[in-house]
Amino acid sequence: MKTLKAESLFELKTVSQPKVWKDFVFFVETVLKEEENEYQTSIYSVHKNTQEKVHWGDSGSANVEIDLSPSGKWLSYLSNNTKDKKPQIFLIPLTGGSAFQLTEEKEGVSTYQWSSNSAGLYYQTSRKTNEVASDEETSSKKRPEPKVITTLQYKMDGRGINPSDLTYQIKKIEVATKQTQVILENDRPIGLSYVSKDESYLLLADKLDPEDEWVYGGSVYKYDLKSKKMAAITKAIPKGSFRFAAANEKEDYYLLVGNDFEFAFVSQAKLYGYDVSNQKLTCLTETLDAEVGDTIISDFHQNVTDFPVQWMNNEEFLFPVTEHGKLQVYQGNRKRQLEKLVDEKVHYTGGDLISEQHRVAVTYSTATKPSEVGILNLETGEIEKLYNPNETFLQTHKLVEPEMFWYKGADDWDIQGWYMDPVDKKEKHSVILYIHGGPHVCYGETFFHEMQKLAAQGYGVIMLNPRGGNGYGQAFVASILGDYGNKDYEDLMIGTDYVLDQHPEIDTENVYVAGGSYGGFMTNWIVGHTDRFKAAVTQRCISNWISFYGTSDVGPHFVEFQLQHDLSDMQELWKMSPLAYAGNVKTPLLVIHGEEDLRCPQEQAEQMYIAMKKQGVDTKLITFPQSSHGLSRMGLPNLRLARMEAIVEWFEKH
């Protein structure tokens, strides 16, 4: 049997965005192309009974956001198969025929919704606010211009500086005539969430308080198409943060996912119901101390849409819950009655209910199954496999099944973790404590390419969910607010000791540590507080909360809500900054960072690197061009490989 390598990314495939039509399940398949150095997506369908797979054609490198018209006549999707590579809406007849481009927006289309009669689609786009010259005239005398910034949130990781010369639009296009009309214009993006069946109103996502940029959060608004008036439907919880999830068939009840913001960023997402008749907003999962939604992290899955909140009928609905590293499926109803239907070691990365059959078409993953399409039986929890794009690969490659365990962390709290043995077990092997980001996400029962690669190269891998992560209740995730680097650090050190005690075959002289984002912060913190690790790798890290406040795209809100201090109390921020303890560091430290990371800006890495140089610590800084915060998950393929190899080379050196 072969072992998995970094280059295996070019052999493995991801499936996502399942949609059911009659006896077919449509889905998107993503592959990484080595020569083109890009991700390419194609649309397929698989028959539920015969498992026959049909390719619906390629048009450009990106074909995503698939949907089916209510009439069952059209398959719709966004594609970049255009002259300027801007995404546009394309349609394919489900009875057969060629795809054709429906929209022609200069700035492209970001999302869309079908009208109930399938005659048209509503979509989001934008236009230049002051467009005075043709494209040809503009390009002939194009010169750099200064950027004028006046807003608090003026940039976003993965996108860059927010354009200040755009007017954002919601438009409607008729399928038969391609005629368009502007429904709504605004000076800021507003999310299109739902179109009523009679097309009398839209449900939109907008800022909680558009007039005060220091107010964090979002709300769901009802926009009357006749009166042009917009009103929040979540005003009963004025400080809450909400998004629309689903409307039932009668349109007399909406499901929303959100929270009351009691614990700021780490307030658990709950499921809320909005009764249209009395305009009452009710928390439907008040008795459930768990996160509604998916917070399980992975580095492999592309173009996922998550398991949806979806109505089964006018009274009952399905929704996902993250708990103990698993994505569970619950059933609820308008009377606030809840029942856990599925609790398996599976990570559902998309789903679509098969009407009245108590089954769901899903894309899914496990620790040793990278990505598959199947039918989930809600009564048994079993999955009938329809399509495995990686079947041939798995027949010839050996993967490791992680060992799940619990241990007692700081204050005797129950902490969950996983340990991966090397593929070829041997006495006295090295081990890596790999710390996740967030911190309010979690490791779980899903495929992790990098961890499997490290195991294939002879390393044991320790993955822990210390306090601050999700899936273990509100008190657990909120416990590190204003207290980074304290009990969470203890959880990690105790967990490392636990694994070393349980696995005496590990070479205790060769224990390493690595992590990214929050994991990068914690790696920096660890080397400033202990010398027990032989070498460390910090990625997309945080080293200085004071400068992070003013340079990160989420800096002011994140620091104030998570650390509970602002620039008026720099002393407290400095105490929680790893840079303050740089003088203690003796551990060799590799610093890895994306040059276009706006979440944890590159200056954070540079500060840590220069501090290590000053300290005389063995160090190296590697920066990655054209790379944002998500380098390890969705960066350019060649750079993802280079990053993984740099990490192993550093550990091998030491």
What does this structure look like?
- The protein is built from twelve helices and 41 strands.
- It is of the alpha+beta class and 654 residues long.
- It has a domain at 404-653: Rossmann fold.
- The strands form ten sheets. It has an eight-stranded mixed beta sheet with strand order 34-35-37-36-38-39-40-41, with helices on both faces. Strands 24, 25, 26, 27 and 28 form a five-stranded antiparallel beta sheet that branches.
- β3 (24-33) and β4 (38-47) form a beta hairpin.
- α7 (545-551) runs antiparallel to α8 (555-563).
- The protein is globular.
- The model has no long low-confidence stretch (mean pLDDT 96).
Briefly summarize what is shown:
By secondary structure, the protein is an alpha+beta fold. It is 17% helix and 36% strand.
State the share of residues found in helices, binned by percent: 10-25%
Overall mean pLDDT = 96
β-strand percent reads: 35-45%
How would the global form be characterised? globular
Distance between the termini: 29 Å
The CATH C-level class name of the domain at 404-653 = Alpha Beta
Number of helices: 12
Which labels suit this protein?
5-stranded antiparallel beta sheet; alpha+beta; single chain; 8-stranded mixed beta sheet; 41 strands; 654 residues; Rossmann fold; globular
Layout of helices and strands:
Layout: E1 2-3, E2 14-21, E3 24-33, E4 38-47, E5 53-55, E6 63-68, E7 74-79, E8 88-93, E9 100-101, E10 111-114, E11 120-128, H1 135-140, E12 155-156, E13 160-161, E14 166-174, E15 180-186, E16 191-195, E17 201-207, E18 218-224, E19 230-232, E20 241-247, E21 253-259, E22 270-275, E23 280-283, E24 291-292, E25 310-311, E26 316-323, E27 326-333, E28 338-342, E29 347-354, E30 359-365, E31 372-377, E32 383-387, H2 391-396, E33 397-398, E34 403-408, E35 414-420, E36 429-435, H3 449-456, E37 460-465, H4 474-478, H5 487-502, E38 506-516, H6 518-527, E39 536-539, H7 545-551, H8 555-563, H9 570-575, E40 589-594, H10 602-615, E41 619-624, H11 631-634, H12 637-653
Parallel strand pairs: 1-33, 36-37, 36-38, 38-39, 39-40, 40-41
Antiparallel strand pairs: 2-3, 3-4, 4-5, 6-7, 7-8, 8-9, 10-11, 11-14, 12-13, 14-15, 16-17, 17-18, 18-19, 20-21, 21-22, 22-23, 24-26, 25-26, 26-27, 27-28, 29-30, 30-31, 31-32, 34-35, 35-37
Helix pairs in contact: 7-8
